[in-house]
Amino acid sequence: MAPIKFGVGQSVLRKEDDALIRGKGRYTDDHAPQAAMHALVLRSPHAHAKFTIDAGRARGLPGVATILTAEDVKDLGGLPCLFNLEVNPFTGPPYPILANGEVRHVGDAVAFVVAETIDQARDAMEAIEVNWTPLPAAIGVANAVKKGAPQVWPGHPGNVLFDVSIGDKKATEMAFANAHAVSEISIVNPRVVTNFMETRAAVCEYDAKRDHLTLTIGSQGSHRLREIIGGMVLKIPLEKMRVICPDVGGGFGTKLFPYREYALVAVAARKLRKSVKWTADRADHFMGDAQGRDNVTTARMALAEDGKFLAMDVDLMGDMGAYLSTFGPYIPHGGAGMLPGLYDIQAFHCRVRTVFTNTVPVDAYRGAGRPEAAYVVERLVDASARKLGMTPDAIRRKNFISPRAMPYKTATGKVYDSGDFTAHMKRAMEIAGWKEFPKRAKAAKKQGLVRGIGLATYVEVCGTMGEETANVRLDPNGDVTVLIGTQSTGQGHQTAYAQLVAEQFGLAPERIRVIQGDTDLIPTGLGTGGSSAIPTGGVCVERATRELGKSLREIAAEALETSPSDLEISDGAVRIAGTDRSISFADLAKRPGIDPSKLNGSATFTSADGTYPNGTHLAEVEIDPATGFIRIVNYVIVDDFGVTLNPLLLAGQVHGGAMQGIGQALMEQAVYNPKDGQLVTGTFMDYALPRAADGPSFVFETHNVPCKTNPLGVKGAGEAGAIGSCPAVVNAIIEGLWREYKIDHIDMPSTAERVWIAIREHQRRHSL
Description:
The chain is an alpha+beta fold. It has three domains: 4-25 and 465-605, Aldehyde oxidase/xanthine dehydrogenase, molybdopterin binding domain (Aldehyde Oxidoreductase, domain 4); 31-135 and 197-250 and 255-288, Aldehyde oxidase/xanthine dehydrogenase, a/b hammerhead (Aldehyde Oxidoreductase, domain 3, Alpha-Beta Complex), CATH 3.90.1170.50; 292-463 and 609-767, Aldehyde Oxidoreductase, domain 4 (2-Layer Sandwich).
């Protein structure tokens, strides 16, 4: 029997943290091959412009090794979009490694400068002569689809990539025609910038003898990058490229994709036969990395007199930016499939338009379409409650899918396998003291403040990245090594996977090594995204450990002259149950004549059905009408993650995701000047990130219902905090503003200025 202290369900401290807090972490920028050249990217200062470029003088400056322009990389493939519609497939425009004659967003890459030092590269970059002819720019989806708007791509009139419908339009229209009442909202889910702690970086080393490239990148997966950068962009055999991902300081979806610089360092290294290193600064990140969210949505709900939801109709426009990033078009389209939320809505229709604008491309950011969907439906549910004079909790109880209805197929074809939605909402309300809120609101009003309370429920689908494989092997010293194609970006995979091994073998986590992010050591892998590491990778590790354990029992049975069925594994040894006769893992590994394959266990797993984590976020806020300042005074989260592997890791994931959502709800927004397309919020002087003081002291619990589509019973947890937080906070703000001023709308970010203006507008109207 495995020791409880290390196994599943225990708050094992993160084994990877000792090195990180001692400054012994190894990130991409720490990788400094001897005599490496340094690179910078010359970016467009215009949102849309024609240009000619002359790098002749710059190439002659001291220390300059090479300057790449579009002409030098014309034979490369472009960055691919890996999503297309099964119905109405579309053809996306090219996404060139360097822009050729025309740029389409501020920050578009036009040249790659390589020099002996970073200062020499900077001097050369400033010496490149570019003649710009600015063109009109389309900024924001609402402007981009207007008649006569500037065209981002000539092959996509009206700036629309695709315009498709999901659901049953006829049934939805009939339900609205017979509805007792209709609620409606028009909302903006603003664009945000990921801002992980470690900016992107890449180092490429070239071995001329083997004609082989080694690419070191801080990303969310090595194999996908090798397939795209090596196979599709550079067009070389995959065995000619090795991709290594060392420690990675945050990803959140944005580091999952291939980027131009990864191909450019490879081209330069091959050309110069030297190592080339590029590290992004924050300006590169703001202007060169995929951004997130950016939807404009109108949603309506058809209501029965008793509050039952009859139908939901949505019009959604998603901003793609200037180019199609890897999964860009999937985000609004896939997210639309989650719009019914946790509710029994029989008739549903959504029009999805993906729109080009002269801005940085948009792609997956923590939650990838599911936070956008939850924000729409939860804002709409609260609007429906106000329409009918019901409380937010009562209308949700009325419409939640019952546990008895599981498995439940939504109107968009998603099949929820498990969950008790009323139960986690009820528990959140109990913890938050929902019934006593009027007393707190009254006390706040005496102090000149407005209290608001709001809740939001959510559901997401995750664990559908595809097939993953894990190999678990016994090392000569009796320790265990796990090799797997997922990639940790701070989540704690080394600890989580070690717990799954410890559960069966009884080894302390320190004796279990986890290797990820190296295409030479690990043959296949999907990387990490979509909260799939534990629902998919965890299953692989558990099964591979079981397979290894079976082999070890067989070897031990021969050594101990007994039957494998009489043996048990614990404390790094195999023993005859009920006796003191045993053989250690180290001795097993050294047994003469052992087939090395017997010291390895391997397992592959994929889930087409996915898992559906769900839960309730409840926020209580205090608003100062004199300034518009908002303070979160209480925040409760009750989630259903099926099974908890490590409560400590889980709480960290939920807290971090919730803070990202709170940041978006209250302060974060990437703003472009609508006239010239300049990124107004291109530095931390203008783009606000939440600090510790901006967040609450979270109260977090789980109300788990084991997943029936996953062998471990787990449901992904990495994105959940970012999904329920935005609507909970904004619903709380609106609850207070509605009760006090009858203000029923405010868009994210709900800054102090926006709240102050809304209150002043109300007061002005009522003073006339």
